[in-house]
Design brief:
This protein has 169 residues and is mainly α. 64% of the residues lie in helices and 0% in strands.
Length: 169
Amino acid sequence: NYVKRDEGVAKSLALDSPNAPPRKFPKWTISYRAIAPLTMACDALIIYLTGFLSSLAYHIVLLGRSVEPLRYAGFAVVVAALFILVGQTTDRYDPAELLDFKSQMRRVTFDWLGVFIFLTAIAFTIKAGEDFSRGAVLLFVVSGLTALIIERIAWRIVLANGLAIRNFS
C-alpha cells in the first residue's frame, strides 16, 4: 500500500486486460478415504497394461511372431492381484505412507521383485516355465517397476499439492 505507482506508464503494457476476470482453477475435492482405493486401481491398471503390452512388444516387435495374448493377460492379472494384496496388508496404500517417497521406492521395488521371485518359484515347481518367454517376463519386470515408480512420484505430487491447498474432504 505504500508503493508509489507511476501513472505515466501506459496501460497497454499489462499482460491481462483490466476487464478480464481473475483466473480461477477448478477446485476438486475427493475423500481422504478414497485415496487408497484409487491408488490400488491405478496400480492394477498399470500392472495389467505393462504386462500385456510388454509381452506384445517383445513377441511382435522384437521376435516378429504372434503371441497368445490371454496367457500374458492372465499372468499380468495374477501379478497385479499379488502385488496389491501385499501392499494392502502392509499399509502401503495409506496416504501418509504414499507421501514418504524414499520408503515407497524401497518398498515398491522390494514387493515387485518379491512377487516375481514367488511366481518364478511356482512356475518351476509346476513346470510351467516353458509356457512363458523369459524376455517378455524380464521386459514386464523392468517396465512394470518403472511405471509403478513413476506412478508413485505422481501420487506424491498430487497428495502434497492437495494437502497444501486442502483439497481433501
